[in-house]
Amino acid sequence: MTELEEFRAEKDEFFRSHPQSPLTPEQRRNFRGLEYFPENDALRLEVKVEPLNDPQPMQMQTTTGNVQFYFRHGRFKFSADGQDAELTIYRNENGYFLPFVDSLAGAETYPAGRYLEPEELPGNRFLVDFNVAYNPYCAYNEMWSCPITPAENRLKIPIRAGEKIFHA
Questions:
Q1: Residue 74, class by beta-carbon neighbours within 10 Å (0-12 exposed, 13-18 middle, 19+ buried)?
Q2: Model's pTM, two decimal places?
Q3: Which range of residues forms the domain containing residue 105?
Q4: Is residue 109 part of a domain?
């Protein structure tokens, strides 16, 4: 079993049995595990980030109408399936945050987008592993409040890695 497969199995067990699972009790009874794209080494990226010197916090709307504050940290360019794209990494007191929506949204991936926490590396570089892209908790249960992906992180290309749309 690969490290990613172990991670996914542990996440399934958490969703199935942990008291803090985002699933409702009824969803847990029928839960057979989350669906994922196959591991894709081409979407495990070490990227150079162009810093954004914007000290102003931005407001990110949430699914429940609240607002969360983030700073636009930097942008990076990458390719997926031979197509170029660009995304913004945000930060707050909890660390780095990368919400994104791809062209598969609503069909194969959650319509409001998926999330990543990119790992900072030396020299304005980050590890961005789309294989661990995950759905926000509001994808499973509307009682959760989740940031809505900003327009600048809505891609016109598919990202065939990470978690797929949840079907209860």
A1: buried
A2: 0.93
A3: 38-153
A4: yes
